[in-house]
Design a protein that fits this description.
about 30% strand; single chain; alpha/beta; binds zinc ion; about 290 residues; Rossmann fold; 4-stranded antiparallel β-sheet
């Protein structure tokens, strides 16, 4: 047994169906991708604290390399994401028992800021010291640095918990869901936007140690149900993108030879870079605490 196995943060059983037998799928650098022999959930087999320490810092949010890890420049999405978050407000407002919101993986705090602007009491948490400093300085919002599982809420509770592009990063989704349940008010809502590995077109890559679990909708529903949540909304996620960002992501996955020409196109014709609502490889799920 090597030291990596001893410190593995990934739990043995499947968070969706509790099966403990996993089949080998492929190796990526030092990581192994596995598939649950019960429900088919895909995961990374071993992740250590050392793999993740310092991972979500400046370079993650400003990654100009061609690896497609993290974001090329996170702040370029602000304008489009503001519109996305206003849509979340519309989706949540009639279902939620109140207006207290907690955002997990809050990054620069833009979701928290936007929700505050439309009348919510909102705060959040993120493991990145870089991102939480920026959130506090740029927006003056309450984003704490840390992990959901270790954070002491001192009895605070919320009507909505959001995980936007976060569920696939969780080291222990079962533990995370239990913590979320403990801070949600009765009838409170959990909003998840996450990669859907069950879409017909396989337009994503395995990205350890960034993405650790690759759920499809039935697996996610099964897990939420087991943890005491009823599904209220589940649908493919259509996201408002700047056209340049959307094409950058699609081309990286499907047509890498187009990345540079398209970059030049928007550099010399910036007026073409409009915001559009476009399909993604993600799912949008709202679940209610029983
Ligand atoms: Zn399973």
């Amino acid at each position: 047994m090597d030291s990596k196995t001893i410190m593995n943060l990934i739990e043995r059983s499947c968070p969706a169906c509790l099966e403990t037998v996993w089949r080998h799928v492929q190796d990526i650098e030092t990581y192994t991708i596995q598939k649950c022999s019960g429900c088919g959930l895909i995961r990374v087999s071993v992740v250590t604290r050392e793999d993740l320490d310092g991972f979500y810092e400046f370079i993650y949010f400003n990654n100009e390399s061609s690896e497609l890890i993290g974001y090329k420049k996170y702040s370029t999405n602000y304008k489009a994401d503001r519109l996305n978050y206003l849509r979340f407000h519309k989706d949540l407002i009639d279902l939620s028992p109140g207006r207290r919101l907690f955002d997990v993986g809050a990054a620069h705090g833009l979701l928290v800021k936007v929700m505050q602007e439309v009348g919510w009491s909102a705060k959040g948490i993120d493991p990145s010291l870089y991102a939480t400093n920026l959130a506090q300085k740029e927006y003056g919002v309450d984003i704490q640095c840390g992990t959901l599982e270790e954070y002491d809420f001192c009895g605070q509770t919320f009507d909505v918990v959001t995980l936007i592009g976060v569920f696939e990063h969780l080291v222990n989704p079962r533990l995370s869901l239990e913590k979320i349940k403990s801070i949600l008010n009765p009838g409170g809502l959990l909003l998840i936007v996450t990669l859907n590995a069950g879409r017909f077109l396989h337009v994503y890559k395995y990205k350890p140690p960034e993405h650790l679990y690759y759920f499809n909708l039935p697996q996610l529903k099964q897990m939420l149900s087991r943890h005491g949540f009823d599904i209220k909304i589940s649908k493919p996620y259509f996201r408002i993108y700047k056209l340049s960002e959307f094409l950058y992501r699609v081309n990286h996955l499907l047509f890498p030879w187009l990345v540079k020409p398209i970059d030049y196109l928007f550099k010399y014709f910036p007026f073409l870079d409009v915001c559009c609502r476009l399909p993604t490889n993600e799912m949008f799920v709202v679940a209610k605490k029983r």
